[in-house]
Every structure is written in C-alpha cells, then in structure tokens.
Request: fold
Amino acid sequence: MNASVTGAGGFLQASPDGPGGMGWLERPDRPGRHRVGTEGRLQPSGLATLPVPSPDGTDPELFTRNVARYAAERPGEPIAVLQAGYSTAGGTLDVGRLRAEGCELIVTQVDSDDEVVRSAVGEQPSEAGGTLGDLRTVPLPPRSFDVVHCSMLLDRIHHAELVLDRFVDALKPGGLLLLQIGDRDCAAGFLDRKLPVSLRAAAWRGAHPGQPGPYPAIYEPLASGRGIQAYVLRHGLVIAQRQELNTLAGERRRPGLLLARKLVAVVSRSRLSWSHDALRYVIRKPEDRFARVL
Reply:
C-alpha cells in the first residue's frame, strides 16, 4: 500500500519496497532518504536496539522505542521531555536506557499536588526534583518540549481536557505525546469508579504491595478510547500507534478481580470489555498543521 502525505511543504510519496512493508521517503525539506512504514511514519535507518513486541501484540518498550527513533532523526540535538504525572510513570519510558544508548534527554517532571502523590514521591528520592501543583497553572512554556510523557494521570485528575490542552501546547510541532490512561469505557474502569473505598484499597494493596495508594478514580469522559479519539480529531493530532493493555494478563494472584471484570462485561452485554484495563497511545503533533495523510 502506498502512503502519500501532502502539506504546505510539498508532496511526498512512499512505496513499501523494503522489508516488512517499509519504503523510502524523499523529503524536500530534509535531504536524504528516510524509511517510512505503511502508516506513513518516518523511521530513521539507525534505530536503538530494543526488545521486539511480545507475542500478544503489545510492546512494553513502545514509548522508549519511539523516543529512540525521534532522537535518531535529530542527531546531536538534546531532547526535551516533559514527564507529566511522574509518580505513576513507572517504567513506561526508560529514561536511563535511552541515556545509556546516547540520547541526550532533558527531563522536566510535574504532577498533581495531592496526598497520595506526595507520599509516592516522598518514597522515591530520585524524583524529588519534580514540581507538584495545580496542573492547570504550573508554568509550561509553549512549544518547548520534544516529548510529553503522560502515564496514568488523566484518569485521576479533574479538568483533564484543560490539562491535556496545556501539554499539547507545550509540545513542539513534530513532537510526540506518549499517553497511557485507565479506560473509563471498560469493566476495570467501571469497577475502579464504583467500588467502595475499602475494596479499592484492598485491590490496590494486592496489585501494589507497600506502595501509597490508591489514586483518585475520576475518569472524566476524556479518559477513554472515544474521548482520546475525539480529542485528537478536534486538535489536528495524529495517532501513530495504539495499544490495549491488560495488566492482569498472566497473573494468578487476583482471580476475584478478573472474575468481577468478566461479570461486569456480561451484565453490560459486552459494552464494557473485560479484556483490557488501560490504553496506550503514541500521538504526533504535526509539524505542519495543514498536512494530512491520504
């Protein structure tokens, strides 16, 4: 399948003449040839070596892999990263590994200022340099970050769309929004919102023994597949990759929680899926807001 991209900068054409549906792209504004996948994404020819995706199709290195590609397209340039919601970022973006492979990363960390976040940050001295506050007003210079990494934040805060607006405004044209959210429109999201506090706390202790929590379960409409899809369309962004995640996959310690999810799915007549509990996105902010994929 040929991928064509048009924009104010001219017409680009790619054909998948390489292995795995990969082709070559000629860009008038960037000399040389660049690999391009069937989805029209630029691929540098020299990528960092990272593990391949798991057999179920999910890629635990998805965010790390995309930042490595982004950095490879900009050799010698420092990459400014905004890590939003850094108390719940976990290992979804391996900053240490990227730096070890030669990526110069400048990381800024922000998170909401609430009791659980303060406790979580207090137990991780390496994260003491971040900023806690109202994410609607924390200073974020526009177009100043190459990458915004936002993991498990939007489902636990109020005014999620306004906050995401600020993150997108802070992203440079051509930059990456790496987003992971709990999904409001699945059985796990329903249970997280509706379970009594005591049961939520017990479920958290089983999943995260010894860690502060649980975090608030807000789940505004944005924190869903439909919400993100609508947001992307309204703001002229491009979803490059999407994954459905099941954090209970392969676990045997919490059969009761899995059974509860399946029961919710049955009662909802499969409107609320039990097979995933989170969504992961790699989203591009176009360099040219008039560009479109044909």
In short: The longest strand covers residues 171-182. Residues 255-267 form the longest helix (13 residues). The chain is about 25% helix and 25% strand.
